[in-house]
User: Fold this.
Amino acid sequence: MFLKSLNLKDFRSYDKSQFDFAENTTIIVGPNTAGKTNFIEAISMLSIGKSPRADKDEELIRFGQTSARITGEIASNFSNGDSTELQIILAKQENERVAKKFLINKVAKSRVDFAGNLLSVLFSPDDLDIVIGGPSLRRRLLNEILEQTDKDYRNAFSVYEKALRQRNALLYNARETGQRNEKQFEYWDKLIIENGGVITKKREELIENINNFSKDIFDFVAFYDKSTITQERLLKYKDAELASGVTLVGPHRDDIGFSMLLGNSTHDIKSFGSRGQQRLTILQLKLIELSFIEEKMNIRPILVLDDIFSELDEGHIKLVLEMIGGGQTFITTTHKEFIDKKLIKDFEVVELNK
Assistant:
């Protein structure tokens, strides 16, 4: 899998920028605020059809503008002439909402059909907190993998998110008014139970795959702390949900735990692992993600390393660089000096200005 070019129009800090890439490794160099993270965000959006960090789509449109566009040319083989154009267009509407359009070779598609055409694995400084941070970071890891590799998961997750928003709105209204209309809940309950079950099953399978992968960097076991959603559990938490105004069970409440193996026992890495062991766990997870996507889709994804060299010591950097090879890689950094001089001479360099 290769990203041959990227065109950004009024996306985040970019007004109009065109990038053309080599088939091996490209270094994106620039000071803070130069747009490196926005560049990476654009690649992620082409992969899964949504931003991994924006709370609202209007944040993606450059200040003072009414629309934005991300266009990428991808190919399974860099040297031949066959390529596919992926495009996302965002446009502000009169009601302050943002309409999002997905196109593949100029043909409109749903996000479910758009996602997964550009396969990528992102490793950013935020990922270093997956083990010790909140559950949302660990759920995001599962989503990044499954939304690219499993259309059934994408479809179920999309429906689940929409149904959950509607159900939470009903719960909020019920809390404020003190009245709950059960007929209004029936439809949304059915949707979140059916699609939540699909999400849970797919996540269980992924966790099993993670545990079965050979771990050369650091050995650990992942535990899936799932929040199963059934009619019985919704009934059990009915009063608590009415008091809180939100849905209290379901995949949006899932978590994952990681334990290291010491002799015949396991120890929670978050509580008992050193900072070094926690980071080795993340490095191993990212290597598993890269291998899993390649095996599942029969094509190597592009690897994106976002400004991680300022966060890692020399030993960890060496392990990350060993992940490069056999595919296209993008590395962002504030200073070229962070990259070994012996390596950088073989890389393409793109310099961004403030």
Residues 236 and 339 are 55 Å apart (CA to CA). The mean pLDDT is 90. Residues 134-298 form a domain with the Glutathione S-transferase Yfyf (Class Pi); Chain A, domain 2 fold (CATH 1.20.1050.90).
